[in-house]
Amino acid sequence: MQEVSAKLFRQEYKLGSEQKAEHVLHKISEGHETLAVLPHDRAEEFSSMLLAINRPRQSLVIDELNPTAGNHRIAGGAPFFTIGRYEGVFVGFQSKVIERIDWEGYGALRIAYPEVIYYLQRRNYFRVTVAPGDVGSVEMQRRGAKSMYGQCHDLSVNGMRLLLPSPVDFALHEGEYVPLVRFSLADVELAVEAEVRFVGGLRNSKTRHPVRQVGLQFLNMAPGFEQRLQHYVQRRDRELLRESRR
To answer: Boundaries of each PilZ domain copy (predicted)?
Structure first.
């Protein structure tokens, strides 16, 4: 895990949404995923599990480390790194021990709720403008707000830029976690989670239905989903190249 930690804890992999960060923590806990715990010098590696999440109290509970020598290595408020997996993607955060506690008859550690969570999502910025009819209407199902519908402008393996009207209830904001984005690509319906990365200003505000550009980054892509996007982006790029040579 030393190699993973050297890459994971970078600015570019920070999760921008607190909602998404909490969602990831709950999924790790519910899935009983093993956590790798590395003291601040990252010289050793120990294992644990995430037992409980208490965001209001700004704390987590993890199992005592194995081997037990690890509990002494992170005692006294020394910072440490934690790495787990969420749907096959490495996730990490930095924390410190608040206190040792008894948890359902077993030893456990109450640790500080992480200020930042890092998510090692592979990035791909290669975008292509979609051809008319290739991508159907895009549906965004939001938490605590009405669904929104828009049109895809360009697409990459990593995300899409679309044109959306203003929401009728709550404003869309950068960093917002979108639990479901649904659209058809070449007549095949696809669905994925996403995060709002960019919200532009209204275009042609004097028109009856002004729209704005919104950038989405896809999250937790299934292999089949990613493969379909790769095939489309490569094919569409060749088409655009041929058109430019005419």
So the answer is: 121-234
